[in-house]
Specification:
This protein has about 200 residues and is α+β, with helices and mostly antiparallel strands. It is about 30% helix and about 10% strand.
Length: about 200
Amino acid sequence: MDFIQVKLQRWFYERRNEVEGTFYDVSYWVEEELKKNIDLAFTLNVFPVDSWRSRVEKEGITFLVDLNKRTCDCFQFQFDELPCIHAIAAIEKRNIKKSNFCSHWYLKESWLKTYELQIHPVGYTDSWIVPESVKSQIVKPPDFKVPPGRRQKKRHIPATESSKITFKCGRCRRIGHNRTACIYSPAIHPFSRKHRE
């Protein structure tokens, strides 16, 4: 627990200093994402419809961007709550700050609020002031029912993680099958069990 407390204390301190030292209105990651998309956005054709809406063409496909509602026909603007390349093209056409169209969760203020609290060390147990009402409580372990059957020793591989298990044949040494399904195996040895049967 002390190790976790020290690590979190260091992380919070370092990240709080990092946020306070940035000049961006959004986090570093968001600023990098927006910069990456600017180059792609300049290749698009933008046709303003009104003060907020624009028609953006990309390789013959038309996307309608509404900056007021923060929507785009590609739906990336709505899902990520960050301007997509079509929205960036429309924003650049109007010379508006891109950070105005990012979700408040990506802004510097939210980033700073995440790390504003300090994690204090708990100190030695002798220096703790524990109320009598807490000392008198008896904490029992939670009720746990042991499930029937043998206990699992191997962990379950989730669907998101690819299985690294590869089969290698004991006869031909090729990967992808085992010796029972081997079609490359040489002729049966005269002293083998199969030959005797």
